[in-house]
Amino acid sequence: MKEKSVETLPLGWKFVRLGEVCEIIAGQSPDSSTYNTEHNGLPFYQGKADFGLVSPVPRVWCSEPLRIAIKGDILLSVRAPVGPTNMANENCCIGRGLCAIRADNINVDRGYLIAFFKHYETKITEMGSGSTFQAITIEDVKNIPIPLPPLAEQKRIAGIIQTKFEAIRNLNTLLKTQLAFTSALSPSFLRQAFMGEF
């Protein structure tokens, strides 16, 4: 990922490598004999296929997890495809297709970090390499450059973005409700229109 020059950052901001301000946990797939659908153990996420809109949706559990992400960790898809993110909403087992990114909340705010990954997803995708399928290494993830403002400014930015996203989600819900209502009315409305019942 190409960095901007330091001179283009606002006063008080700096570029850091992700690994300098976050713990990066590489996923590791446990033995398939430990997988189950009976909710025995931790939810097991293998990659983007398990992602929901904000957090992953459990389909499989693992009774003997090898690598664990904790609630609040950012889950980054590191292979086929590279770049999409979700947030762990509970402790979970992560396989090789994911890594967990744990903000230290001293140097970097988790909300700001989530916004960063959403904004830079395409650039992270471009980092992927491989002839069979695209992938990035944990070292690649640790070396991702991130523009870092002071913590108070990070929180302010994250708050603004969160408010905007909530407004978008609310609008989306309203539109879906109106569309369902309109769809339910359409057959009756059309029948009345073409039968001269207006």
Describe this structure in words.
This protein has 198 residues and is of the alpha+beta class. The protein contains five helices and eleven strands, in the order βαβββββββββαααβα. The protein has a five-stranded mixed β-sheet with strand order 3-5-4-9-6, with no helix packed on it. Strand 7 (74-78) and strand 8 (82-87) form a beta hairpin. The longest helix has 44 residues, at 151-194. The relative contact order is 0.17. Mean pLDDT is 88; it is low at 1-6.
DSSP strand count: 11
Describe the largest sheet.
Answer: 5 strands, mixed
**What is the name of the CATH class of the largest domain?**
Alpha Beta
Please tell me the overall pLDDT. Answer: 88
Query: What does the radius of gyration come to?
Result: 21 Å
What CATH architecture of the largest domain would you give?
Alpha-Beta Complex
Straight-line distance between termini: 62 Å
Pick out the low-confidence regions. Answer: 1-6
Helix proportion of residues, in percent?
Answer: 25-40%
Look at the helices and sheets and give the structural class. Answer: alpha+beta
Order of neighbouring strands in the sheet with most strands: 3-5-4-9-6
Strand fraction equals 15-25%
Number of domains: 2
- Full CATH superfamily name of the largest domain: DNA methylase specificity domains
User: How would you describe the shape?
Assistant: globular
- List the total number of helices: 5
CATH topology of the largest domain: Adenine-n6-DNA-methyltransferase TaqI, Chain A, domain 2
A few lines on this structure:
With 198 residues, the chain is α+β, with helices and mostly antiparallel strands. The protein has five helices and eleven strands; from the N terminus they run βαβββββββββαααβα. It folds into two domains: 14-148, DNA methylase specificity domains (Adenine-n6-DNA-methyltransferase TaqI, Chain A, domain 2); 149-198.
